[in-house]
Every structure is written in structure tokens, then in C-alpha cells.
Design brief:
Strand 1 and strand 2 form a beta hairpin. A 5-stranded antiparallel beta sheet has the order 4-3-2-1-5, with no helix packed on it. The longest helix is centred in the N-terminal third of the chain and has 48 residues. It has about 100 residues and is α+β, with helices and mostly antiparallel strands. This is Preprotein translocase subunit YajC. It is a single-pass membrane protein. It is found in: Cell membrane.
Length: about 100
């Protein structure tokens, strides 16, 4: 009977030894891939929500302009004195110069 219990304990140890590398691999993936991507997504959403008229921005295509109008989904940019272009808000890559806050 003692031999039967010893065999059962050895089997549970082997299962833990088999699962341990998968747990370790998931932890590595989480800290090296998933968590940094979540931080980057949160930072990008923050950048897009803080846009305002007068900000100088750059699109993902490299076009630079000043925000003239904003809606929930679109941004109208003034590229030069006469040209205005409409982009999706998600097409904005970075803010080059932020406009001063409007005091009302």
C-alpha cells in the first residue's frame, strides 16, 4: 500500500514539473510583450483624447499640420494657408507643439 501512495506522489510531482515551463513562458510573454503593448495603447488613447484646436500634429503618413476642427472621429488640419485636409483621429501619430490652453 505504501508503494501505491509513493507512486501517486511521484505522478503529481511530474505533472507540476510539466506545467512549470508553461507558467514561466506565460510570465515572460506577459512582461515582455503584453504589458508594454497595453501601456503603449493607454498612452496613445490619452494623446488622442487630449487633442485641441491649434495643436501642431503629425499624421502616421508624415503629414504635418495644425488642427482647425475636431469631432469625435475626425480632425481637420490646416496644412498651409489655403489647404485643409480631413483625417481620422486615429491617423494622428504625435503632437509636435501643443496649443496653449484656452481660458474662458
Amino acid at each position: 500500500m505504501n508503494a501505491f501512495l509513493a507512486a501517486g506522489e511521484a505522478g503529481s510531482t511530474n505533472i507540476f514539473q510539466m506545467i512549470w515551463p508553461f507558467i514561466l513562458m506565460f510570465a515572460v510573454f506577459y512582461f515582455l510583450l503584453i504589458r508594454p503593448q497595453q501601456k503603449k495603447t493607454k498612452q496613445r488613447n490619452s494623446l488622442l483624447s487630449q487633442l485641441k484646436k491649434g495643436d501642431k500634429i503629425q499624421t502616421i503618413g508624415g503629414l504635418q499640420g495644425t488642427i482647425v476642427e475636431l469631432t469625435d472621429d475626425t480632425v481637420v488640419l490646416r496644412v498651409n494657408d489655403t489647404t485643409k485636409m480631413t483625417f481620422d483621429r486615429s491617423a494622428i501619430s504625435s503632437v509636435l507643439n501643443s496649443a496653449p490652453a484656452a481660458t474662458e
